[in-house]
Amino acid sequence: MSVEYKITIRTSDRLGAGTDGEISVVLIGTHGESEQHKLDKRFHNDFEAGSVDTFELVTQELGELLALRFTNTKGLTADWLLDSAEITSGEKSWYFPHFRWVLSNSTAEVLVGTARLPQHVQHEREMLARRAQLENRRQMYPWRPAEATAGLPGTLDISEQQPLPKDELYRGLTEGSYTAVIAKTITTLKLHMPVLTNAWNGLVDTLNLFKHLEIPKLAQRWQDDYEFARQAVQGVNPVHIKLITALPDGMPLTDGDVRGLLSPGSSLAQTLAAKRVFLLDFEILEDIPMFRKVDEEGVEERRWAPAARGLLYLDDTRQLRPIAIQLGRDPAQAPVFTPNDSEYDWLAAKIYLRCSEGNTHQMVTHAIRTHFVVEPFVMATMRNLPDPHPVYKLLRRHFRYTLAINDGARKGLLDKGGVFDDFIATGGPDQGHIKLGQKGYLRWKLADNKPRLDFERRGVLDPAILPYYPYRDDALPLWDAIEEYVGGVLGHFYKSDADLVADAEMQAWWADLTERGLPADKLPCTQLTRVADLVDILTTVIFSGSVQHAAVNYLQYEHYAFVPNAPLCMRREPPRKKGVLGPDDIVEMIPTKSQTMWQVAIGRALASFGDDEEYLLHEGGWREEYFKEPGLAALQQRFQERLRTQLDAVKARNAKSEVPYTVLQPDRIPCGITV
Fold first, then answer.
1. Which long-range contacts (CB under 8 A, 24 or more apart) does 257-263 make?
2. How far is CA 294 from CA 52, 245, 298, in A?
3. pTM of the model
4. Which among 44, 100, 189, 633 could disulfide-bond with 167, CB atoms 3.0 to 4.6 Å apart, if both were Cys?
């Protein structure tokens, strides 16, 4: 018996998504396969970018549809970015989400979109399609050899023979690719270099660089102590502030040193006991090699980022301000500076501490704890979960472009000869920044990325202890919303822990992840047998790639572009005595003209949003729709409602704030790591 099927095909609206190739399709169902149908309407340009094309096919009755086999041939610009297909026949309908390329002169099977665990697949042809898809993906997504990633998370292996899959290729940012943004910014800066003085004075001349760029708002207040402390709770690296009730070992600070800096009549010991002192500590930099290189003429260049630490005080106005900074661990070599010291001693101490924070931020807080720990989950998912698996559907939107940006970062920033060698303190021949990343990864566990546990560990969860902490107050509701959504989705499919144990695809995912990506001792469990553990892991992964990455990435231009605020290298050894510094010494310490340009350009590029960015709270809904099940639509709607409530709360707080904190607005948090 012949049956009419209507197929509606959506082509992506991305530039270059359309095809002039010849597209044909075979419908695959429980009762067999159709003949091959060429999809072509006369006098119509089919499959243009952003188009929706509908065709009617007549073939034998195929039962329940399981897959569509698309073949793409004969075009000059034939690679085709297929978003989805929908087929109707009478009252029946089937949805086939894809959101990937169908390459020229190739065939691709698109599996039906009904989310199913493997043990719930009833037809052998459907199971064969899932297995075939994974066999193909494992060829496309090979792990890099373990010896090449020693001391770091597992990564995708990319070479000339094994290029990045086209599905993962990086899209442009609003002003082009991030490398184009860097190049464009460098060009703009160089155009204005002739108007600068020959004798570069970074404290003065940096502002002249911004004639055709936005001036970071903090440039007008960067030397203020309250501004320095504000950056610890809502700056680009707000994850270090820690409550202390006793002075750190090796920090010789006395009541005389802080005279006039505390509440009248209060001693340092009383202030510590009252839980009004907080620590910023970058001891992780101890023993990390710093840049040191001798050029062909025998001139040595060195850079410093000391293992610095500083104390912040919650004063009687309930605001934080710095009261002590030590640029090292040895009290004999590293005096403790305070606001009672000379103007230039204190300014230098703050700049050095920010430099230490910047090197730690770039390699540990940002690169390791978001970019590179998410990558193994991308790899395990692409290699082991077929399109219809509910966990694939849950995660895929959060993994867009992560492999591409990580590959770009390794090649352009981190590898020998990369940009980091040009301007950060830990870069250079000894690859100190890589050693810093390895040291950060060695200390890290996935649970460290859970915000509530992190705040508790640092003693700053309670607003009564630390009243103003926008990062904390914005991150926690977002975590809770993600956790509820992930738990709801997984609970829809896993009715018991036994369902997870029986899920062969997820068990393969876990084995692949722990054998090649992240060792089990960095994860909250050694075996994947509890749905609660899976909820915890996937919530942490999504949070890390969206909320956490946004927090530590998108303020980079504001934080780093006015370089004296937070230079990524210092060109002099930290001062070992008090009272000897003057303004000329500060000028000689901070980055050169060239280093300043690189820091501005990198900060601008990494703080850019994509022209196809998809946000957690996305106007009109997410563009890539993977789930069609009514129960899951309700969960998604609930998630969006919680995000809208949080957006209103952020806007209300910022309306009263002297310095708004907008980076964790749900409508400005990309779903994943895209830059």
1. 257/324, 257/336, 257/338, 257/340, 258/323, 258/324, 258/338, 258/340, 259/340, 260/340, 261/313, 261/323, 261/338, 261/339, 261/340, 262/313, 262/323, 263/315, 263/316
2. 61, 45, 6
3. 0.96
4. 100
Could you tell me the sign of the dihedral formed by the alpha carbons of 192, 197, 202, 206, in that order?
negative
Which helix (H) or strand (E) covers residue 557, if one does? helix 556-560
Helix (H) or strand (E) holding 480: helix 470-493
Closest CA to 151 of 444, 429, 417, 365: 444
- Give 3-state DSSP helix, strand, coil % of the chain, rounded to 5: 45, 15, 40
Residue 49 · residue 16 · CB < 8 Å:
yes
What's the confidence (pLDDT) of residue 195? 55
Structure tokens at 556: 């980079």
Q: What percent of the chain has pLDDT over 90?
A: 84
Closest CA to 585 of 292, 345, 354: 345
With beta carbons less than 8 A apart as the criterion, state whether 608 and 181 touch: yes
CA distance 333 to 331: 5
The whole-number pLDDT of residue 176 equals 46
What does DSSP assign to residue 160? S
- CA dist 232 and 61 (Å) reads 65
Domains 2-113 and 185-354+563-589 share a fold: no
Number of other CB atoms surrounding residue 104 within 10 Å: 17
Work out the angle at residue 143's Cα, subtended by the Cα atoms of residues 142 and 149, and round it to the nearest 5 degrees. 150
Tell me which of 167-181, 336-350, 569-583, 646-660 is least confident. Answer: 167-181
pLDDT, tens digit, for every residue of 241-280?
A: 999 999 999 999 999 999 999 999 999 999 999 999 999 9
CATH classification of 185-354+563-589, choosing from 3.30.420.40, 3.40.190.10, 3.30.300.30, 3.10.450.60? 3.10.450.60
How far lies 290's CA from each of 105, 307, 308, in Å?
Answer: 51, 11, 14
Residue 409 and residue 418 in contact, taking contact as beta carbons nearer than 8 Å: no
Please, which residues bridge with residue 242 across strands?
Answer: 279
Whether 172 shows a pLDDT value over 60: the answer reads: no
Contact 275, 465 (CB under 8 A): yes
Rounded CA-CA distance 61/63 in Å is 6
Q: What number of residues does the chain have?
A: 675
pLDDT of residue 190 exceeding 70, the answer is: no
Cβ neighbours of residue 115 under 8 Å, at least 6 residues apart?
A: 388, 389, 390, 393, 493, 626, 627, 629, 632
Q: What are phi and psi of 286, to 5 degrees?
A: -60, 130
Distance CA 85, CA 9 (A): 4
What span, in angstroms and rounded, lies between the C-alpha atoms of 117 and 416? 44
- End-to-end alpha carbon distance in the chain: 53
Compute the distance between CA of residue 17 and CA of residue 11 in angstroms, rounded to an integer: 7
Burial class (CB in 10 A: 0-12, 13-18, 19+), 59: middle
Helix (H) or strand (E) holding 314, with range, is strand 309-314
| Residue 365, both tokens | 């807080």
Distance CA 428, CA 432 (A): 7
pLDDT per position as a tens digit, 442-501: 999 999 999 999 999 999 999 999 999 999 999 999 999 999 999 999 999 999 999 999
- Which numeric CATH code is attached to 2-113? 2.60.60.20
Q: Which two tokens stand for residue 452?
A: 């509530």
Structure tokens at 549: 């990455």
The domain locations on the chain are 2-113, 185-354+563-589
